[in-house]
Write a structure and sequence with these properties.
This protein has 90 residues and is an all-alpha fold. It is built from 3 helices and no strands. It has one domain. Helix 1 (4-29) runs antiparallel to helix 3 (51-82) and helix 2 runs antiparallel to helix 3 (51-82). 6% of the residues are buried.
Length: 90
C-alpha cells in the first residue's frame, strides 16, 4: 500500500497529458465533425481573427487545468499523510 502516492502522482501526470492531447486533437480534427469543443472554439475564433474569444478559450483551459491539478494535489496530500510519509509544503 505504500505505492498509492506513486499511483496518484502517475494519474496526475497522465490526466495532464490527456487533457493537452484532447484539446490539441480537437483543434486539429474538430473540423470533421458537426460540433466542436473548446479546441475547435479557439481554432475557429483564431481563423476569424477574434482575439478576445481566443484569449477567453485559452484562459478557460488554464482554469480547468489548475482546478484538476489542485484536486490531484489535495488527494496526494491526503494519501501521503495517511501512509505516514513526509510531505514538504512550499
Amino acid at each position: 500500500m505504500l505505492i498509492l502516492p506513486g499511483i496518484i502522482a502517475a494519474l496526475r501526470i497522465g490526466c495532464s497529458r490527456a487533457w493537452r492531447s484532447i484539446i490539441s486533437s480537437e483543434a486539429i480534427f474538430g473540423m470533421i465533425g458537426t460540433s466542436g469543443g473548446l479546441g475547435m472554439y479557439i481554432y475557429v475564433n483564431r481563423a476569424y481573427g477574434n482575439l478576445a474569444n481566443v484569449i477567453v478559450g485559452v484562459l478557460l483551459i488554464i482554469v480547468i487545468s489548475v482546478i484538476i491539478d489542485k484536486l490531484f494535489s489535495a488527494l496526494e496530500k491526503i494519501t501521503v499523510r495517511k501512509w505516514g510519509m513526509s510531505y514538504d509544503e512550499k
